[in-house]
Amino acid sequence: MIRLLTTLAVLLALAVPAFAQEDTSAAPSFNEGDVITLDQVEKLKPFLPEEFWANRDFFFYEGMQLEIGPSFQDYSPPQVYKDATAKHAKESKIGPESSLANYRAGQPFPMEQLDCKGDPDAGAKVAWNFVRRWEGSGGSARFYYSYWDRGEELPLYYEGNSTGVDLAFRPEPEYADTDGDLFRGEKRYTAGGPNVEAPFDARGIMLLTYRYKDSYNPKATSKNDDTWVYVPTLRRVRRISTAQRTDAVSGTDFTFDDLFSFNGVVPQYKWECLGEMDLISPMRTKVMAYPYERDHNFGPYGLSFADDRWELRKAIKIRFIPFNADHPYKYKDIYIDKNSMEPMYSFAYDRKGELWKILWHNHRWSDEKDFTEYEGWESVPEPRDLTVVSDIIVNVQTGTGNRIEFWDRSGTPMKSKGKIRRYIDVGRLTKGR
User: Does residue 40 or residue 193 have the better pLDDT?
Assistant: First the structure.
């Protein structure tokens, strides 16, 4: 699906290394309930990607209080998603250029059946499992985007709300008659975008993006996203191109496709599966940052989750290599939690093969008692969604970075199809203005 803040990137445009250890036999020297301070971070080293550890000064700092949570908790998706996986798993196939054919719903390629070392298509299969991971019905949240330079927050920021809707490949039984489509004959598979509330000179800007089922196809039959933006100063809607999703955005450190570590189109890359390992990372946050708390401490660089709860997880590592010769990255390595398929870390390398950017994420578990925004619905009484609630991107070559916060992100669907139709209609952008 289009991840929650993809079209925020469009808005902003308008204004090979050592692998992590695969030998996980070493027991950790920390336990659940421990609080790791700066003088104890060596305990974490065997369970962190080497690139992250080599740049630890961005993330670990004097005064940090990193809590060790439980290891290998079950954050698997709800039964409705598991049932769809069991029903359709044998149908999905990898086609030319890492395309996906015959996909219906659920996890395209069950992780327990994947052979990372022996299957040449394993990398593409993991990538598709990541793209098709369970995220409820799409995602809605309030967001705050900030830009940081060596610990100083710069004036460039955006604040507002955003909603995305899954229109196809739905696993709920009520969509069986329409082959998983929310609306019969649907060609899009997701739609949505942000409404900007601040700063003042951007207030009222709204975007709407469609991503199509054909984006799963090889390049020759693929279709790019369509995006429309309402600009209050012009008092009109205009259509804009989103073909160049890999360009740097408005002088910041991320590209359109960097959100959630990967928010791009799978068939535009070659994929490799590089191994499995145990990693520790922020996984089930105890923090309530934006929109609940605007001034939470993210460390001296403004780019750290070291004051939160981290958990030991089973991870799988994949690499993409762009087919496009003018792509800014030579490759990117992505670490994914095998149980939930949520992103943990990723490392982007420039065309010279030098580490350029580190991306990492914080998560919130939908079944937390205080997560009242994330309600279940008729066929999904327990959402069971380990949802990303913050992205951090660090440019290790310049010391700059971006933080995107959306701690109230929910995948609960809109109350009716009528409301969905109105929300994803381009005419909504100017109605009443």
Answer: 40
Query: Cα(185)–Cα(183) distance, rounded to whole angstroms?
Result: 6
- Percent of the chain past pLDDT 90, that is, above it, reads 81
Joined tokens for residue 405: 């916060």
Helix-then-strand count for the chain, H and E: 5, 17
Residue-range domains of the chain with CATH? 6-15+32-429 (2.50.20.10)
H-helix or E-strand spanning residue 271: strand 269-282
Q: Rounded to 10 degrees, what is the CA torsion of 350, 352, 354, 357? A: -10
Residue 237 falls in which region: left (phi positive, over 0), alpha (psi -120 to 50) or beta: beta
Return the pLDDT at 259.
85
Task: Scan for tokens 């914080």, then name that residue.
Answer: 362
Question: Would the pTM count as exceeding 0.70?
Answer: yes
Q: Do residues 403 and 133 lie in contact, with contact meaning Cβ atoms separated by under 8 Å?
A: no
Per the listing, tokens 């005064």 go with 63
Residue corresponding to tokens 């090979």 = 16
Rounded to a whole number of angstroms, the CA Rg of the chain reads 20
